Amino acid sequence: MRRFCFAPILALVALLCKSLPKALSSVAPTHECGTRPLVDETATGMRIIGGHDAQLGAWPWQVSLQVQSPNGFYRHICGGSLINSNSVLTAAHCIKTTRNPEFWRAVIGLHHLYKQDSHTVIHKVRAIMVHSDFEWGTFENDVALFKLAKFVKYNDYIQPICLPDIPPILTNDSPCYISGWGSTQENGHAVRILQEAEVDIIPQKVCNRFDWYGGAISWNMLCAGTETGLIDSCQGDSGGPLMCYFPNDTKYYLVGITSYGVGCGRPKLPGIYIRTANYRSWIHSHLLDKTTTVSFPFVLISLTTGWITFHLVL
Predict the structure, then answer these.
(1) Rounded-to-integer distance, Cα 267 and Cα 300, Å
(2) How do residues 284-305 score in pLDDT, each as one tens digit?
(3) Candidates 81, 238, 259, 302; catalytic one
(4) Which of 141, 154, 190, 283 could be cross-linked to 31 through a Cys-Cys bond (beta carbons 3.0 to 4.6 Å apart)?
(5) What does the pLDDT look like over 198-225, one tens digit per residue?
(6) Is 259 an annotated catalytic residue?
(7) Active site (annotated) includes residue 218
(8) One of 87, 142, 237, 311 is an active-site residue; which one?
(9) Of residues 64, 76, 85, 93, which has the active-site annotation?
(10) How far apart are CA 18 and CA 64, in angstroms?
């Protein structure tokens, strides 16, 4: 009969138990989501026309996803949103360049696209997960998740954004914004300073009219911006956040992921976002740790008309 020595096993168990709290504390989120420590929310309610430079630290979950070129330099491809200490949510079509995580990096706490501040952090990417049902033709399920090689330490310039469990109600008291380093004109170049703009959510029935998108917008998508196209996003903004502020909770929620659009700033051709809440199960199933989520016992209501567009940098 074989005999087992339990002493090494017990020692290993004791070691694991001793280190477990520390390991869990590095995995589980320790900060509240959706807050902007450096911004006075009472001063952000004014209407933005066409977008402008964002304040330093204005959107602490904004991420620049960059790919290494053959010459060794990195270039901005898409935006992303930090949803916990080692996960960035973005659009699946952003991964067109390469799926190899070794060629990607995530830059967080960035304001000027080519100048890093003392609070800016750069992390390698450990894994890239693209929704298995993503369709290039329709941009259905345009969702991807980047897992970072290291955990991010939160500070005033780096914070995660909240994920809603179900589509929340949006009213005039819940302003929505977009941000990114994308071009300010169709076929233009990426800007250097992070841009921001306030947008309206367009009802799906309006966006699907025959002289707009003609029924191409599914329930997994939504439109935002202005009907005239004066507020818009463009190449380089893909994967970035459509975020809405809820005064009662004093938090921002990631309502949408910048997906696609026809041109930039064209009337009745709005940019399309992926409804984040519709993919909460997919997101959670691909996380090693939980994101901070909030349950809303209601559905999304679009009260105004407007729109934006987003594309990746090629």
Answers:
(1) 24
(2) 999 854 454 444 433 343 433 3
(3) 238
(4) 154
(5) 988 999 999 999 999 999 999 999 999 8
(6) no
(7) no
(8) 142
(9) 93
(10) 37
